[in-house]
Structures are given as C-alpha cells and as structure tokens.
Write a structure and sequence with these properties.
phosphoribosylamine-glycine ligase activity; phosphoribosylformylglycinamidine cyclo-ligase activity; 60s Ribosomal Protein L30, Chain: A; 6-stranded mixed β-sheet; Phosphoribosylformylglycinamidine cyclo-ligase; Phosphoribosyl-aminoimidazole Synthetase, Chain A, domain 2; 13 strands; nucleotide-binding; 331 residues; 7-stranded mixed β-sheet; alpha+beta; PurM-like_C_sf
Length: 331
C-alpha cells in the first residue's frame, strides 16, 4: 500500500524556508555609495546593478538534491545543464541576457569521472544559453560534505529600458505557460522519497522510460525568451521553480488565476499517484508541467504561441494578490 506524503514530511518546509529567507533579507540593509549601486530591491528572480544605460544582473543557484539521483544512477552528464538552467532561467524572467558563469563544486573527494561528466553538462548548458564559463571553484570538504554539491553564479546584461520587471502587469493580462521537460530541479527531496519507497528508480513509466531516467532529465533552458521580448510586448514572466505556482506572487502586487493548467508530465503523474499528494501540495512543490510563463496583453498572445514550442494560454491576471488553480487558492 502506498502512503500519503508531503514535502514537509520529506524534510523541506516551504513556509519555514520563506520565513528564513525573509529573516535573512531584513539584515541586508547596507547599500553601496558611489557608482554602480543596486537597482530595485531584493526578492525578484535576479538582482540588478546600475551600469549607466545598462544594468548588470547577478543570480546564483544549484542543482539541489537532484545530485543524489545522479549519484545513485552514476550519471552526472546532465546536472551541469541543470545548474546553468536554474540560473539563466531566472535572468530570462527579466529579459536579461546571460553572458558569463562561474561554477562551484563542493565534494568529499575529487573523482575524475564525475568531473568529466559535470564538465560535459556545464559546457552544453553554456552552449544552449550562449554564455561563457569564465571560471569556478572546486572545494574538497571531507568531514563537512558527503557526496557532491554543484552550484553556480550567473552574470547578465541588458539595456535598462528593456528590463521586464513585472511593474506593467495588470488585471486582464493573459498568462501563457511554457512546457517543462519534467521535474526540472526542484522538489527532489519529496520526489526521491516517493520513488525510493515505491519500487525505486528502475520502475518503468508508460512511455518505457524508467523513473530514474525521467528524474535525471535536465531542466529546459528557455533561451527563446530574448527573441520573444524583442518581437512583442511582455509585461512580466515567471520561472516556475521551488514553490511551484507561488512563484507568480514574486512578480506583481496583483494575482494570477490558472484556469487551464498545462498537461502534467508522466513522471509527475506517477509521483502524484504513488505519493497520494494533494493538489495544493503538488502545485506549491513542483512545476506540474509549466516551467516558465509569460504575462502579456492580448495583442501579444498569437505571436508568442507561434514562436515558443510547448506554449499555451493557461490563465489571466486578477486583482487580488493570490494564486488560483481552477478557482481554488494555492496556499
């Protein structure tokens, strides 16, 4: 018999994490004097720095416990793509072009085969996002780290007047979702628990893929965003990562109603079924098939649907600052 799971019971309390981040941000009151100060506040998907007519942007992220799946499968060839994707997708949200990247590997001990495979993925991610990897750091932390952790930091640039901050989002705008490639790189503490307690990574899905193969599928890099923003008016965007649909609340003071959600990938259907996960738990933990979203005026819809593979209209912007899924609030 399967059992009912939750992200909190698996070891990750989203609400506690949000409170912790807010507590940290409250301490970050210092602001640089002189040139190249901060543009905007802390809390959007990427931070911005004044650079005259342009802004520079920085963000940092990692692969998380998806690395544990890679370890179990002894396949690290795609986690470099994940590491870059989780960073550059946060830049694309603001129509910022990623230009440079540095990686950080913390490990209990260097293994040449791991480094080769990680390098292959990082190189592919850099190619997919047209970005230079300009350096990095590898730290052997035996006694402090078990296994291997991969993270990185991205630098981006954009003309100041072309940044999409979300301030133009207004009620009535249309939400266009863009398909994910699966679980991407969030919710793996829960996904791994469901998988390992319900047959393991060798269980086959209807497509013939194993659970392990589906879980190791790399995060989609949404590089087409830059072309879309050159072609049509875009009011806001969202990278659907940890926190699921609640990421939309980072964009605007208004709310978001997802009336026609995207098809759910088979691996997430399997996790939902085996874990007996409630709808609210699923849509505040996983991307559930929508890895990215555009918030646009009606006039931009047709062109975006024609330009972006796997895009569909999923909802609209509403007055009240909350997220609705088929009329029910996600909490």
């Amino acid at each position: 018999m399967s059992k009912k799971y939750s992200y909190k019971d698996a070891g990750v309390d989203i609400d506690l994490e949000a409170d912790g981040v807010k507590s940290l941000i409250r301490q970050l009151s210092f602001r640089r004097s002189g040139e190249h100060g901060m543009v905007g506040g802390v809390g959007h998907f990427a931070g911005m720095i004044d650079f005259g007519p342009k802004v520079l942007s920085l963000c940092t992220d990692g692969v998380g416990t998806k690395m544990r799946v890679a370890d179990d499968l002894r396949d690290w060839s795609t986690v470099g793509i994940d590491c870059i994707a989780m960073n550059v997708n946060d830049m694309y949200v603001m129509n910022i072009e990623p230009i440079a990247f540095v990686d950080y590997i913390a490990t209990e001990g260097i293994k040449a085969d791991q480094m080769i495979q990680i390098g292959i993925g990082l190189n592919e991610g850099a190619k997919l996002s047209n970005m230079n990897i300009v350096g990095g750091e590898t730290a052997t932390l035996k006694g402090m780290v078990t296994g291997l952790d991969l993270a990185g930091t991205c630098l981006g640039v954009q003309d100041r007047d072309r940044v999409v901050s979300g301030e133009k989002v207004k009620p009535g705008d249309i939400i266009i979702g863009v398909a994910s490639t699966g679980v991407h790189s969030n919710g793996y503490t829960l996904a791994r628990k469901v998988a390992t307690e319900n047959g393991g990574y060798s269980v086959k899905l209807p497509s013939g893929k194993t659970i392990g193969e589906a879980l190791i599928t790399p995060t989609r890099i949404y590089s087409e965003v830059l072309d879309v923003c050159r072609a049509v008016e875009v009011h806001g965007m969202c990278h659907v990562t940890g926190g699921g649909l609640l990421n939309f609340l980072r964009i605007s003071e208004y709310g978001f109603s997802i009336d026609d959600p995207m098809p759910v990938p088979e691996v997430l259907q399997w996790i939902a079924e085996k874990g007996e996960l409630e709808i609210n738990e699923l849509y505040r933990t996983f991307n559930m098939g929508m890895g990215f979203a555009f918030i646009v005026p009606e006039a931009s819809v047709a062109k975006i649907l024609a330009m972006v593979d796997g895009a569909q209209v999923v909802g609209r912007v509403i007055e009240e600052h909350k997220v609705l899924l088929k009329g029910v609030e996600i909490l």
